[in-house]
């Protein structure tokens, strides 16, 4: 989805122990890309590190993208991250306009986001070749092996364009909670995980 290559340098600006940190560790091992770690995200000190390291993947979610935009707006004549080709996102709601602002002001293809949970990491992912409307308005499409279902409040499978709870099955879905008494309410009768997130 991000077309990561060995020459990439990815910003690891969120806690490594977050499920996304484990995902990026795997991405680095699988592709050979470099990971730029910072102890804590503080724009005044983190952004210069990312600039010196010539970041190409400017992650990792809405709060970070907003901080990058704020810094870019303080120096409008010069790109903050001139080598950055994409801004991976996830972990927080993404206002659609944010994609357009990031693309116009920071460059690259804009925000390429995914959606998942600790219990089921990366269920959907956008692609660097998606058009702007898809990148702005969605969190991508289900990745291979993932089955999603939208279920309305009254328990029926939603129709096209109808909002409901997103439920998921896939190989990366956890097996259950340590406290097994929580599993009965976490999974529906078809084995789909009840994410608690709404979607269409």
Number of helices: 6
Task: Please tell me what the overall shape is.
Answer: globular
Largest sheet: 4 strands, mixed
* Adjacency order of strands in the biggest sheet: 3-4-5-6
CATH architecture of the largest domain: 3-Layer(aba) Sandwich
Low-confidence stretches: none
Round the mean pLDDT to the nearest integer and report it.
95
> Helix/strand-derived class?
alpha/beta
Number of strands: 9
Helix content: 25-40%
Rounded Rg: 18 Å
The proportion of strand residues reads 15-25%
CATH class of the largest domain: Alpha Beta
Oligomer: single chain
Look up the CATH topology of the largest domain. Answer: Rossmann fold
How many independent structural domains?
A: 2
SSE order: EHEHHEHEEHEEEHE
Distance between the termini: 21 Å
Please provide a written account of the structure.
- This protein is of the alpha/beta class and 200 residues long.
- It folds into two domains: 9-142, Rossmann fold (3-Layer(aba) Sandwich), CATH 3.40.50.980; 147-199, Luciferase, domain 3 (Roll), CATH 2.30.38.10.
- The chain is built from six helices and nine strands; from the N terminus they run E-H-E-H-H-E-H-E-E-H-E-E-E-H-E.
- The protein has a four-stranded mixed beta sheet. A three-stranded antiparallel beta sheet has the order 7-8-9, with no helix packed on it.
- Strand 3 (87-89), helix 4 and strand 4 (111-117) form a beta-alpha-beta unit.
- Helix 3 packs across helix 4.
- The chain is globular.
- The two termini are 21 Å apart.
């Amino acid at each position: 989805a991000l077309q990561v290559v060995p020459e990439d340098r990815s910003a690891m600006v969120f806690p490594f122990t977050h499920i996304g940190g484990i995902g990026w560790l795997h991405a680095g091992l699988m592709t050979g890309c470099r990971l730029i770690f910072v102890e804590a995200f503080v724009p005044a000190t983190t952004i210069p590190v990312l600039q010196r390291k010539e970041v190409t993947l400017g992650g990792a979610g809405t709060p970070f993208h907003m901080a990058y935009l704020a810094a870019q707006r303080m120096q409008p004549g010069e790109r903050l991250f001139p080598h950055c080709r994409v801004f991976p996102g996830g972990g927080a709601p993404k206002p659609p306009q944010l994609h357009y602002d990031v693309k116009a002001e920071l460059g690259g293809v804009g925000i390429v986001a995914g959606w998942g949970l600790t219990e089921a990491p990366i269920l959907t992912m956008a692609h660097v070749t998606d058009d702007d409307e898809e990148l702005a308005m969605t969190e991508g499409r289900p990745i291979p092996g993932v089955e999603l279902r939208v279920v309305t409040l009254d328990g029926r499978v939603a129709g096209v364009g109808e909002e409901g709870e997103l439920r998921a099955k896939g190989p990366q879905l956890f097996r259950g909670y340590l406290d097994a008494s929580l599993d009965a309410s976490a999974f529906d009768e078809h084995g789909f995980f009840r994410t608690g997130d709404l979607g269409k």
